[in-house]
Design goal:
9 helices, two-stranded antiparallel sheet, Rossmann fold, 2 domains, 11% strand, globular, alpha/beta, 7 strands
């Protein structure tokens, strides 16, 4: 919600001039995003596939950071997680249909804690897919139309497999914070048009950067996530999927505990405010 600063100031001085006590005036530049889908449509997510690019696989992969948060919260059930990424990939680079049809994906694991034992897995079902294109593609003039085409196509293909599609919101670059306005507008509109749950990682990056500029969420290229950035993105996924706060979760992936708590609290506020939900 946008509120005129000049209007608030006029009201402030008007109240003061007539001698009325002013108890509290507070406002925010942006609160709720009017997202139509606010939680997983299919309810409980027991298996998740992430499809994307290097923004997912940096720092030992977002899905492992998510796993740490899940493992360390006794109130949530475990979740199988698979991550399929291609460096620099945009949506057309992936064959999403084959990922969901190939029963060999996730059909076994190697148990490194048990002498590298081969462990078969007959249940390769996926409940939800979180996908993202290249970080700039949704707003770049040469790729934004393709982004729209493939979000729609992905959504249809994924639903045909009785799986829930979800859209991951990319973040503004460190040296281009003004990207947030265009990213926000495009992602909210696209999510609503395609009836998708939006993972608001980009909004969480923006909010955290404003509150804690001394904590760097980026690597030297000013685009890819630092380990703090990957952890923040994973916390957004956790809070959005489970509708549950991350603050105090001990699964912090070797981050400084004070930094991790700042990330958790900031993420919880962003997810709650942006989606318009109350986290448990």
């Amino acid at each position: 919600m946008k509120i005129s600063l000049s209007k608030i100031l006029r009201q402030f001085f008007s109240l003061r001039s007539i001698g009325l006590p002013l108890i509290l005036i507070s406002f925010s530049v942006f609160s709720s995003s009017n997202l139509e889908i606010k939680s997983p449509v299919n309810g409980k997510i027991e298996s998740l596939m992430l499809v994307g690019n290097s923004f997912f696989y940096y720092n030992n992969s977002l899905h492992n950071h998510l796993g740490s948060l899940i493992k360390n919260d006794p109130d949530v059930t475990s979740m199988k997680r698979r991550s399929i990424t291609i460096s620099g990939a945009d949506l057309p680079w992936h064959d999403i249909e084959s990922y969901l049809s190939n029963e060999q994906i996730g059909s076994f694991r190697i148990d490194t804690k048990n002498n590298n034992k081969y462990v078969p897995n007959s249940d390769t079902k996926i409940d939800a897919v979180i996908f993202m294109g290249c970080s700039l593609c949704p707003i770049h003039p040469d790729t934004k139309d393709t982004f729209q085409v493939y979000v729609k196509r992905y959504s249809e293909i994924i639903r045909e497999k009785n799986v829930e599609p979800m859209l991951f919101m990319s973040w503004p670059y460190k040296n281009k914070p003004e990207m947030i306005k265009s990213l926000r507008d495009v992602f909210v509109d696209t999510a609503n048009k395609n009836n998708l749950l939006l993972i608001p990682a980009g909004e969480a990056f923006h909010d955290f950067n404003l509150s804690y500029p001394e904590i760097d969420l980026y690597t030297k290229d000013l685009r890819h996530p630092s380990k703090e950035g990957t952890y923040l993105a994973a916390a957004v996924v956790f809070a959005t999927l489970y509708g549950k706060a991350t603050a105090g979760n001990p699964g912090i992936m070797n981050l400084d505990p004070e930094v991790a708590l700042k990330i958790q609290r900031s993420v919880d506020k962003t997810v709650s405010d942006f989606i318009g939900i109350t986290l448990r």
